[in-house]
Amino acid sequence: MDKLKEIKDRFAEGEIKQQHLETMIFNEVYDSDASRLQDACHDAARIRCSVAEESTGVSLDLIKNSRLDNSGLSEGHLLTGIEMKVGAALIPMGLAGPVKISGEYAKGEYYLPLATNEAALVAGVQRGVKAINMSGGIRTQVTFDGMSRAPLLEAPDIDAAKKFCIRVQEDRDLIQELNKEIKDPFVRLEYIEPYQLGTKVFLRMVCKTGDAMGMNGVTKASADIARRILKDLEGWKLITISSNLCTDKKASHINILQGRGKSVHAEVFVPEEVLQKVFKKGVTSRSVERVVFHKCYLGSTLSGTISGFNVNAANALAAFFAATGQDMAHVVSSSAAFVQADAVEGGLHFMVSMPSLEIATIGGGTNFGTAREALKLLGCGEIGTSPDDNENVKRLAEICCTAVAALDLNTACAQAAGYEMADSHVALARGEK
Amino acid sequence: MDKLKEIKDRFAEGEIKQQHLETMIFNEVYDSDASRLQDACHDAARIRCSVAEESTGVSLDLIKNSRLDNSGLSEGHLLTGIEMKVGAALIPMGLAGPVKISGEYAKGEYYLPLATNEAALVAGVQRGVKAINMSGGIRTQVTFDGMSRAPLLEAPDIDAAKKFCIRVQEDRDLIQELNKEIKDPFVRLEYIEPYQLGTKVFLRMVCKTGDAMGMNGVTKASADIARRILKDLEGWKLITISSNLCTDKKASHINILQGRGKSVHAEVFVPEEVLQKVFKKGVTSRSVERVVFHKCYLGSTLSGTISGFNVNAANALAAFFAATGQDMAHVVSSSAAFVQADAVEGGLHFMVSMPSLEIATIGGGTNFGTAREALKLLGCGEIGTSPDDNENVKRLAEICCTAVAALDLNTACAQAAGYEMADSHVALARGEK
Amino acid sequence: MDKLKEIKDRFAEGEIKQQHLETMIFNEVYDSDASRLQDACHDAARIRCSVAEESTGVSLDLIKNSRLDNSGLSEGHLLTGIEMKVGAALIPMGLAGPVKISGEYAKGEYYLPLATNEAALVAGVQRGVKAINMSGGIRTQVTFDGMSRAPLLEAPDIDAAKKFCIRVQEDRDLIQELNKEIKDPFVRLEYIEPYQLGTKVFLRMVCKTGDAMGMNGVTKASADIARRILKDLEGWKLITISSNLCTDKKASHINILQGRGKSVHAEVFVPEEVLQKVFKKGVTSRSVERVVFHKCYLGSTLSGTISGFNVNAANALAAFFAATGQDMAHVVSSSAAFVQADAVEGGLHFMVSMPSLEIATIGGGTNFGTAREALKLLGCGEIGTSPDDNENVKRLAEICCTAVAALDLNTACAQAAGYEMADSHVALARGEK
Amino acid sequence: MDKLKEIKDRFAEGEIKQQHLETMIFNEVYDSDASRLQDACHDAARIRCSVAEESTGVSLDLIKNSRLDNSGLSEGHLLTGIEMKVGAALIPMGLAGPVKISGEYAKGEYYLPLATNEAALVAGVQRGVKAINMSGGIRTQVTFDGMSRAPLLEAPDIDAAKKFCIRVQEDRDLIQELNKEIKDPFVRLEYIEPYQLGTKVFLRMVCKTGDAMGMNGVTKASADIARRILKDLEGWKLITISSNLCTDKKASHINILQGRGKSVHAEVFVPEEVLQKVFKKGVTSRSVERVVFHKCYLGSTLSGTISGFNVNAANALAAFFAATGQDMAHVVSSSAAFVQADAVEGGLHFMVSMPSLEIATIGGGTNFGTAREALKLLGCGEIGTSPDDNENVKRLAEICCTAVAALDLNTACAQAAGYEMADSHVALARGEK
């Protein structure tokens, strides 16, 4: 294919801009044939790899040949998914489960797809699943649903700031009016929490976004809304359309208190005899309770965390996110979790609360490739048709919380058994189990 | 291959345990031929997929066919990398750069591999790179290096607790003696920070771990050390070998103050004219300074974060981590970052400090596949030979911090230009740029 | 007075209980003559001092002779104010001001009574007052008013917990019904914020409490309300009537976000020439802005505070609290403050926001002695007649915030002048000024 | 005394400056007779009161007549203690105890002086004392001693910053050399913790300060040291001599981890039968453990505190501080406390850890009046003669921690008894007990 070779040479010479490469190949090599769009994008990726290989002498064979078809056409424009694409990264995927869930949305038995490089993680989830299933399954629920963005405005003086904050809280018509600014049919503004520091007014806008995680939709909406608000406010200024009070991709306490994405809870009652059977002999509800207190509360508080009151929620969460195409930067805030292990009559009452699980079944990485398959496997492949129609993503949130609960239950019990955690990691890494 | 079919059927019937599947195929189908090890593991993964497909009716074609050869043999045992493997997850990868770095370890021009599903991210990094390069490059450094684990012990009374804490701080021989317990030649205990709460003693053990991230090595070491310590202490008990004071995979302030993994800093001086050329007209050092103050400090403090004083460090970090095979759950703690934007004579003094970057060039996901290629591309493919020999990983840490700095510089400037951030996300998502 | 001597001897012998001493003297020595009540209590205090003096050999002359008449009679019972009283502690009081305030409630010129042992503090406030007055005065406002307590209940399962939380948020009749349980005419329940962690339900009850700080009234109300709620909820349990989510007397982020007591803001625009005249020559709006950023934000965030984004709010606050009879343990939470110093056209825009100022003009120490006089001096001596009638305490809150703003303005400017802060402390302590 | 009348008139006319009033009366009315110094200061205070009374029409009788002699002469200068003095504030004082302490420094039986306006507080401490004494007393210890200040410097670039931080950590000669700059014989620099954020270097200087709390001495020392350091560092600048990393009078996590003032621990083992006798029937070690977990950990973590893991440490602490002349603004940071209540074989293992108790037996308010008497009563009236000679203040720290432990033990048990806390507050406030 000489044409492609020629384009590659021109690209290597810097004659073709990065952002034009896919379009040029699509048009010139494939005559804008929509059925060849993915091939065009794959060619572009391979060209970029080749140029990097030639300039560095390093082989990028696997990257070059890994292919994820996430491109599309929109009103004549070629959407490449991400920019400057060279291929795809591969993360090993395991499948734990099936686990019994009695949730509001997840009802039945579910596999738990987990993409991770960490040995012992999938096995750990699986042992937790075993304990859960022997205990009759886990109960789950979603108690909050909303995606937030928080533009920051500056009032001319504190009186104007106060007056506007009161209006935002009390004037329901304002919310309705602002909703008219939102073009995206999958985004609806629910309410605005105003926070004032002197003349600075943070408007934490909370939206329903259907089955989407919603951050991009909400960012756009918040810019439109800020523009609209400022039109009527004399002497006010926009400081930033995103003020970190959202809070996006940072561990923040406001997300704990007010929620972001979904707030999800799970509980399971594990009888003493299940603890004994699944874990080591010394593991009792009381010993697990003490480990969880000392590790997840005494240790965590001394460490100065404001969101990490769990055994290792991020481990299961990151693996579940990678497998299902979520935004991996959301691991920061979504892994916030409170674990409780109460020794009660007859066994262990184990609970996990995740206040800010930012998750999706549509949009971004969930639309394509291995992620799409994983979502379908979980019965979350359908797509809601309105901001409120989000049973798929709530189901997914409950399954995700279950994966976290399974791993944390397992690891809490492993630590209640003394040195077992370290020993088992070593054994698994050595292939002894 | 009838044998394989038969194994599959027995597996579907539950006659073969999950953890025996690879070994059985390897032995029975491939006659334990080491050169066919990866095939055996791939077969096992496909069998698991098929069973899940059959039980759910959902096709897992892409998962089934994605293959990442991360298995190995160790003293006759088959190491599968992760357990219950079904294939691999794919995340699109882009390549920003090259960017000029004048670091302690990174010196020259470097590509920035970024695996992400988020549109605009790679383009954002690239615009930051443009500004950095036009400013003569970025300066980087590593100021801390150490991996920590913190077992928690209980003393019989507070006097015993105090006495032991003093010994841990003052007795250098103790550290030397404890090092004898560590079998892993790539792990060396440097010092122990003791923290006492009544009778409870947290021992935050800090180790050098060469080019490895080191968490598993340190976990093992800390179990051995705890065992050794307790042998001599009458009336003491182990509460847990990992107390969350480490702190692993939670956003914690102790990691900010004491460091974990690597502490890395980057600075670049961006002349006013570069700001004007690369970003919108209104963008000046003063306007960027104000946005960074309001977003990364006023907004962040109000949000109740203890680690998120940045524009969006997690975005670049997660993409860099996914591309280079890092433990994705470490995004939580590694994305802690303080950004500073000082308007000074002639331009913008932009700085990023990342106190707890947990990163590796060897171990876990870095050993295999696309990650290995990405690491080689960055000149970080060699492997140190001792706990102190870690120039590869320090180089990687500096490059990673550069990626974060590039994106945060870009996004801070975008927000200083008013609504640009939202508009550009939409445009990119729509393919208009 | 033989009778008194005899009582003293019997008390020294342990024949009279601590809590009966005042009543016995009142009855037996003063024949229950109400006009001699304070004398009886003072006698009791002196007796306790004498007994302690005799047993230790230490003279308590000043304590014994310091007298604060805070006793009373209520339905025949003698109220001693506090128990086991021996006298009073004395803290030196200075009077800064008058300062010009244009507040919502404080309008005019106000003295600032400050009880403290710290040299330079009153002088520092006074220099801040000077700058404020030369700038035309300070503007103040109250944006939140409500006292909170948070009992913690346990539901039988997470479904019941969720259901009840929804009811608490949506059922306005419930709030009205619960208000019937509250006997105190100065307390009215406004709303309840429910927070759920698994089966645990925190009910953060927010009340109006008139001119009182309200904590005791609200504690009683929350017990009555918890009792009432539990009556209708089968299988639920009370864990504690006060769960630290209130949050009382601890530095907590929930008080920052949701407010407690009063949220107060103050702003003053200080022209450049005022900065030059009042402070050292080098002090400009820009230099103050930089000091405030580095100290109150960069330094504070690195220190791991969640409420201390100010120069030294606690100094002025504690002195104002001691002078006006507030609960000194509330200094912890009430001193939460965000200071902003924006260099703007023509000068410095200086702002202080105090989200959780727990303050009173009636109840506890505000009813008596020097505190009562100080409150009258501030025009805050009247007492509202209902939960909503609280202009006195709001006026006081604005004056208190002004004292904090004056000191923080002064100290920020002093630090912008380099070593001045240390030098001036020394000079004042040496009497050189 | 016509002279005094004349001075008052001139003062009222504004002809005499605030800071000259005491000196003028001392010189002109009392002929600089040192024995009349306190009278001169008291006259000045009364004059200020009169002027305020005349301008406002409010009587300040009690303030005017409360007298605290805290003035002195130093090299011919008159030291007024605080500035613009008008008298003193009175806070009621009670005396709990004696309590049995087996501490490192406090050994024997100690009264607990408590100045507070809160009913039920002294009685609550006393009930805790009763339980402690019936349990054989409380064990206490001091595990850290050091006062800190943290100037903030700016390096010309990150390399210079790193180099200097390393020097500060490794060069013991530097510390010795810097100590030469310190003029105060009661202050000795022990070590410096450097923290780097880009080019900004925070130097947390930790000093021994004898029996003094030490903040003023350390502030002066840190200015001198900063000056000395900067002399040798080209291109460096002082940003502020106090950067909030100290951290002074704000609730900060660095003080928790690194300590400030004294770190103190207390433990007591309370047998089940003592719990039953002293508290209500239902109170068991298990019920107290559960309340402490839910309130001090689950509730506190959800509230977003980083220092408030206790029942109500600030209550006892503030009262003890007011009674013993401590800096009341230090209640913010000194009240940081971790309470543990472990149900163990036979009873309750109750512990309190206070990492940053900033306390003194000499300097500021401790030198005078009722505070001095209270300190003598506690056997803490002597004064050490060097930075290391600080047994008095350590003894005081242990007694203070005991007061906190007594109240928190009592209140935890009260809450374990259901509604008791609210009921008893009401009863005590009504005089029913």
UniProtKB/TrEMBL annotation, chains A, B, C, D:
Any one GO biological process: coenzyme A metabolic process
Record-linked Pfam families: HMG-CoA_red (PF00368)
InterPro entries: HMG_CoA_Rdtase, HMG_CoA_Rdtase_cat_sf, HMG_CoA_Rdtase_CS, HMG_CoA_Rdtase_NAD(P)-bd_sf, HMG_CoA_Rdtase_sub-bd_dom_sf
Cited PROSITE patterns: HMG_COA_REDUCTASE_1, HMG_COA_REDUCTASE_4
MF GO annotations: hydroxymethylglutaryl-CoA reductase (NADPH) activity
UniProt keywords, alphabetically: Oxidoreductase
Family that this chain belongs to: Belongs to the HMG-CoA reductase family.
Protein name: Hydroxymethylglutaryl-CoA reductase (NADPH)
